[in-house]
Amino acid sequence: MSPAEFDTYFHDRASRFAAFYRSEPVARALGRGPLFDRLHSAVDIVTALGARSVLDVGCGSGPLFAPLAVVGVRVTGIDPAPAMVALARAEAERHPGSVSVQERGWETVDEHDAYDAAVALGVFDYVDDPADLLGRMGRAAPHVIGSFPAPGLRLQLRKLRYGARGVHVHGYRPDDLRRLASASGLVVADLRPLGRAGHLAHFTRAEV
Ligand SMILES: C[S@@+](CC[C@H](N)C(=O)[O-])C[C@H]1O[C@@H](n2cnc3c(N)ncnc32)[C@H](O)[C@@H]1O
Q: Domain map of the chain by residue range?
């Protein structure tokens, strides 16, 4: 999927995606519990690392902002979809001085050691060149946290649903994640299952 198609897809559906986060019990009842599992696990890892600054790649409406801001972490959210950025900026205003939002894609991430951790939740699913994204995140921060859907029936159904709109969806097995890490100069430090939905991976630099 080209970056342009990816951007438009989420721009058009920003409110629908944001609505998934309105109620955790409702999301769980609808089978969307892994959204909250990956969010909580990412916050746990960031907190355990003692990270003070986080790059939130593909921040969407900003579900990570509140739980990180509340523990004193500064967040830079980036997202190229204008409608997502509008929702993220509204959410950022609730945490003055803690969160900034930039309208740009991961392809522009050229920072080096600018953050303590870089997080991408629900983004690698749709990226055709995951090693490029992971490599950029690994240069921007010494710790990288990402969610990765598992191959299987659930992913096949998503492929059909999204594919009809020109969006590619990719699945990852644990071995794929180790290979991906190695191709990006990283290692898998922790792999947390998200039920049958996939994994939340914590990567660190190979030389650390
Ligand atoms: C499934 S949503 C996940 C949003 C948020 N991280 C979450 O956990 O709810 C995927 C997000 O990736 C964003 N996105 C699309 N293209 C991108 C790109 N090139 N760089 C960074 N983010 C991108 C979309 O606009 C969308 O907000």
A: 3-205
Contact criterion met (CB below 8 Å) for 202 and 134: no
E-strand spans in the chain? 53-57, 74-78, 99-102, 117-120, 143-149, 186-193, 198-205
- Residue 161 structure tokens: 């649903």
Cα three-residue angle 149-5-147, rounded to 5 degrees:
20
The CATH class of the 3-205 domain is: alpha beta
The type of residue at 43 is: V
Task: Name which of 179, 113, 105, 107 is nearest 148 in CA terms.
Answer: 179
State the distance from the centre of ligand 1 to the C-alpha of 50, rounded, in angstroms: 25
**What distance in Å separates the CA atoms of residue 137 and residue 207, rounded to the nearest whole number?**
16
Query: Which residue's CA is the closest to the ligand 1 atom numbered 9?
Result: 60
Ligand 1, closest atom to CA 38?
8
Residues 6+ apart with CB under 8 A from 37: 194, 195, 197, 200
Atom of ligand 1 nearest to the CA of 106: 20
Give average pLDDT by consecutive 10-residue segment, the chain, 208 residues.
64 88 92 94 98 98 97 97 96 97 97 98 95 98 97 84 81 96 96 94 88
